[in-house]
Amino acid sequence: MPAIQYSQELMDLRQYESMPEEQRMEVFDGIAYNMASPSQLHQSILTELLVSLRNYIRKNNGGCSVFPAPFDVKLNDSPLTIVQPDLMIVCDRDKLDGKRCNGAPDFIIEIVSPSSQRMDYLTKLLKYRSAGVREYWIVNPADKTLFIYVLKENQFIGMHPLIEEDSIQSKLFPDLDFQLAEIFN
After folding, report:
1. Is 167 in contact with 178 (CB distance < 8 Å)?
2. Within the chain, what is the greatest distance between any pair of CA atoms?
3. What is the DSSP track for 110-173?
4. Could you tell me which of 20, 50, 159, 184 has the fewest CB atoms within 10 Å of its CB?
5. What is the pLDDT of residue 66?
6. Nearest 5°: CA angle at 100, between 98 and 103?
7. Rounded mean pLDDT of 33-38?
8. What are residue 148's phi and psi, to 5 degrees?
9. Is the pLDDT of residue 7 over 70?
């Protein structure tokens, strides 16, 4: 994702909110990055996961909310860090202000695109850990794998990568259980 260079100064919330709504971007430490449009495969996987998560939350834990991208998450004010995870679950409604989630969602899923690998596997992993995201999934359509990271004592503990034949079970939501193949087909 190429950085957007508007000025030498770091972007703040006021500048971010003045950007055109149709321009999708994320801001890391005050530097804005363009976001490419997702592929059909990306959107198909997103839809499968969204339906599974929404159905689970409705059935088991009505206090949480599921949000697909684009929906802002402000992880830090100074320097500004705002992300738009592919999917997230927020259980603390006090973090929601009608425009965004302020602080770490409980659960985040990112679906890797060729242009987002470094961001998803490194930059966002570190930002989400620092912010206190309790569970982070990275779905890679290219090799049909899923990486699950669970926050324990301020560190992400990575599970071994799951492959298409494996069953997925969330650590945060133990009854959320389905086959990985279901999201890739």
Report:
1. yes
2. 49
3. EE--TTTHHIIIIIHHHHHHHHT-SEEEEEETTTTEEEEEEEETTEEEEPPPEETTSEEE-SSS
4. 20
5. 96
6. 125
7. 89
8. -115, 130
9. no
DSSP bridge pairs for 178 = 168
Written as one letter, the residue type at 54 is R
Alpha carbons 166 and 180: distance in angstroms, whole number: 6
Residues 104/75, Cβ–Cβ less than 8 Å: yes
> What's the half-sphere exposure (Cβ side, CA atoms, 13 Å) at 75?
25
Residue 4 clears pLDDT 80, i.e. is over it: no
Q: What is the pLDDT of residues 50-72, one digit of tens each?
A: 999 999 999 986 789 999 999 99
- What are 65's strand-pairing partners? 90
Three-state secondary-structure class, residue 50? helix
The partner residues of 146 in beta bridges, in order of sequence, read 139, 162
- pLDDT category at 3 given cuts 50, 70, 90 is low
